[in-house]
Amino acid sequence: MRLTQRVIAERPNNRGAIISRLLAAAAAVSVATMPLSAQDTTAAAPTAQTAQMQPISHPQGEKAKVSGWIISRRGDNLLVRDETTGQLSVVAVTQDTKITEKAGVLDLDRKARDATNLLPGLKVEVKGAGGDQGEIVATKISFHGRAQRIAQGVAAGEVDLKAMQKRTADSLAAVTARAKDTIEAMRERARDSLAALNKSFNDRISNLDNYETRFASSINFATNSAQLSDEARKTIDDVVARTSGDMNGYLFEVLGYTDNTGTPKFNQALSRRRAQSVVAYLSEQHHIQPRFIATPAGLGEERPVADNSTAEGRAMNRRVELKLMVNKGIKPNGQ
Q1: Where are the domains of the chain?
Q2: Are 271 and 262 in contact (CB under 8 A)?
Q3: pLDDT tens digit string along 35-49?
Q4: Which class would CATH give 209-334?
Q5: What is the rounded distance in angstroms from the CA atom of residue 323 to the CA atom of residue 143?
Q6: Strands, DSSP E only, in the chain?
Q7: How far, rounded to the nearest angstrom, does the alpha carbon of residue 122 sit from its chain's CA centroid?
Q8: Cis upstream peptide for 35 (omega within 30°)
């Protein structure tokens, strides 16, 4: 709805008079404690310091816009505080100003509204151009329906701002407390999981004392390689075949080694990768469950089985020792 010509005629022509009236209203209005959380913003609320601020001047004829709260109103002049910068702007509403309420999914719908909806405390988006007194002559003003309901409640004295702020603070405190409890619970579970993992590792190492070697074989690798050759895969297949497909009572031990070429650090990592290659083949090709494989290890160039001074000796040392262990107290496969 357009403003009447009578209202427009009441607009003071003097910029100083306009600003003085708006600032006086801002200092007196009770909604100076806005914004509320319902308006979805963390911008600082208008305070008594607003009365000591001077609105910015917008160049005449240049496009201008502001998004923030109406902190006071006199006739068809609004004083709007920018939600980002906190600066004040005088906004002039004319008979040509299009006022709409955002609604619907993604705020795509627009409902036509009139100047009576522009209450102090309402968050608005203003578009227009600079006027001859430094104000924004608004061509479009839009707002959310939920923001309007808050502003109406405040204007009617139906909303206790302090009570709402206290409830908001209490809610934040409750959320913080729950988050803290959740983090502590996660830490406790992580500690428990780590302790259980360490216990499982130690138990598996000590349990090796209950096993004896039933069969052992060496799987050899090329220089600087952890890739299984066709011959290496066949060797693993032969060892697995000795279980006759029943792992009850059996356990694989996998230990990786290298020759003495390269640095100890490199050889340690390489021997570990070789052991992991064998474990991966056992798991992926023969579907051996992890509980039937003792924790694999890489021992680098330790425990050579041949002389590293010869090519033949180094080839024999580039290996993984795969052992099929049997529980001393169990007779696998009915043996």
Answers
A1: 5-159, 209-334
A2: no
A3: 443 333 333 344 445
A4: alpha beta
A5: 76
A6: 63-74, 77-82, 88-92, 98-103, 109-113, 123-130, 136-144, 211-220, 250-256, 297-298, 319-327
A7: 32
A8: yes
Contact 161, 154 (CB under 8 A): yes
Provide the pLDDT for residue 82: 92
pLDDT band of residue 124 (cuts 50, 70, 90) is very high
Is 325 within 8 Å of 252 (Cβ atoms)? yes
Please state the rounded mean pLDDT for residues 228-245: 92
**CATH number belonging to domain 5-159:** 2.40.50.140
- 71 with 19: CB under 8 angstroms? no
Q: Residue 37, Cα to own-chain centre: how many angstroms?
A: 22
User: What DSSP line would sit under 192-239, residue for residue?
Assistant: HHHHHHHHHHHHHHHHGGGEEEEEEEEEE--TT--PPPHHHHHHHHHH
E strands present in 34-182: 63-74, 77-82, 88-92, 98-103, 109-113, 123-130, 136-144
Closest CA to 294 of 223, 200, 154: 200
